[in-house]
Here is the input.
Amino acid sequence: MISASLNFLETLFGTLGDIFPIVVTILVFQYLVIKRPISQPKQLLLGTLFVVLGMVLFLLGLEQALFPLGESMAKQLTSAEFLGLDESAVYVVSEHWAAYAWIYLFSAAIGFSTTIAEPSLLAVAIKANGVSGGAVSIGGLRISVAIGVALGLALGSYRIVVGDPLHYYIIAGYILVVIQTVFAPKAIVPLAYDSGGVTTSTVTVPLVTALGLGLAESVPGRSPLLDGFGLIAFASLFPIISVLAYAQVTSFLASSSLSGDDDEI
Here is the structure.
């Protein structure tokens, strides 16, 4: 009980220290640059307290639940007993990459589900729908981003298992993004690039990081420092690819429908 209280207080003071520069910056600009009083100061103070409390509880939840959960799932899914491999035998992991199929599926599923639950993605999707006058579907954008994260995490997990260098995948991915950017509808390109950033937020990052570290610790011959990190890069890159692909497919279908109507006329 005492340890939990000390942990809470330590996290609380750490969070206050992180938020303090933001508050100071806002107050300086409000009173010295804009030179206007803050409207509804009581409501603003109450909201700030809620934010601080929420961040503290979230950080404690990460430490006590999400990080251990991701690591334990990775270790259980990659155990020799679960994979049906001889634990005492020495084998080349890259030659048995297919045995880790469940970890690829789990990575894809956790990537899809956490992205759908990502509040920052929902906020961006709502704004994009409003600005575009409904042209950008909220559900379509969220699902396309979630599919991109799922594919990216599955491929990133495969990279950890086989031990391939990370930069090969990232370079190839961005080459594909550049090619897609040339042919994709120009209105969707900025939104697609932003979609890669909103996935690396409060829900996705903790589980993805824990998953990568747990996987690197469990796979023989892998280093948590060299191989455990990098999954977030896949979670940022592949949503760009999937959103651009979604826009290209919908644009193609729309043009095909219009051309078909013209032929009928």
User: Anything to note?
Assistant: The longest helix spans residues 41-77.
